[in-house]
């Protein structure tokens, strides 16, 4: 028995140095071919387990991407030939109908054979506007117990051109990134307003609530994102969860500044009344702009608040008011859980796939681990 155990151990230790014909074979290196990208469509090898995005970037292609974890949909491509493993992704970024049409997310998909994909060139061109900036912390204002308004001032003479609804990535010292939406409209380009909610275990949000000071410098890159108002004519339904109000604020104030009068309904869902950190502002919008209607919704109202408004889940409140979503546009921003629950419900009530725009907040892995209860 001891001799057999010793021989088995020796064989396992020797396996990495044995030739392929001795029971070990090399994985096939599949070929990837990308169409509609400047520089041609020459195929190149994809490493085992490598995502299509990583393979393309490694070979010098300018591919569209943002979050790199299957949450934003910026790296959407069409698989013309071959098979891929789609990997883990957020359904809001790749609906089942899009997957059935042969689409995939390059940041998650890996090759199962030789693959030919198509990428929209105009989407790729958008990344040329992204650059790195430095800004000074101008103001730190507590809006609610767990929300801070962070005002950043760019150096004198500098401005950032962005679209309402886009976001920036705060760059941390070790290269990690934290995404935050513009809360100010693009007409205000010299300063940036961010709404920062404390995330348990969140590295950057923890610093904002404890050590960050006025006068400190932050580096960021942007603008990023495609959660922007379309040029359509349909009535607009906004659904915001917690600080998902920030990009909606940017879009709404931009619409006012541009004189848009499309009918708009804003449903803002939070847990308690104290979390409605911009309640007076939203009510002011409603008074001053007859085409905007504001509906706050509390999921866990405190009896002491004597709340007489809507309660429950915010997307369900909107669905109760709009049983037929045909001929509407819906913009939903909030947690991944909220977006994933809401989008299928919207589709079931007639919302067209091309009229649903989403922005799901994705906490960092470290924050997710800190927030997850121990088994």
Describe this protein's structure:
The protein has 375 residues and is of the alpha/beta class. It has three domains: 30-125, Roll (Ubiquitin-like (UB roll)); 129-226, Elongation Factor Tu (Ef-tu), domain 3 (Beta Barrel); 236-366, Nucleotide-binding domain of ferredoxin-NADP reductase (FNR) module (Rossmann fold, 3-Layer(aba) Sandwich). The protein has helices spanning 2-14, 52-58, 96-100, 121-125, 203-210, 245-257, 279-288, 314-321, 336-348, 365-371; strands spanning 30-35, 44-46, 76-81, 84-85, 103-105, 110-111, 115-118, 131-144, 147-153, 167-171, 177-181, 191-197, 217-224, 236-241, 264-270, 292-298, 310-311, 329-335, 356-361. A hairpin with a 2-residue loop joins strand 8 (131-144) and strand 9. The chain is globular, with a radius of gyration of 24 Å.
